[in-house]
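Hi there,

I know you've been waiting on this one. I reran it after we fixed the sequence typo, so this is the corrected version. Both the input and the resulting structure follow.
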Amino acid sequence: MRIYLAAPLFSEVELSFNEKIAREFREVGFDVWTPQESILVKDGMEEEKCSIYEADITALRESDVVVAVLDGMDVECGVAFEIGYAAALGKPIIGLKTDRRTFSNVEDVNLIIEVPIKGIYKSVGEVIRALKKI
């Protein structure tokens, strides 16, 4: 199974957490693609941005499932886009939310994000168990 890991990647903590998740998925035999292991913005030129966008879109299309990190008061905008694109493609989406903060008193995440997600789990181990059922 090829997993697209949709996750924020803008701080050392986020990058380390994503590496940990990808490693745990790989240890149980999943093929994982993460944007942070692909091309990152270096010079901000239009050609570079288009290349990064196309690599991400290709990886989303080629994935079997998307695992989305949903931590924070609101889902990071790039992750939100990846969830929407995956939903439009009909891909199964699994959420990982280790953060206790919620979007509102009735929603862990915004309903437009929550509805297409098959399940939101609190640990990588729970996500792995859910992935094995797909």
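Quick highlight: The first strand starts at residue 2 and ends at 6.

Best,
R. S.
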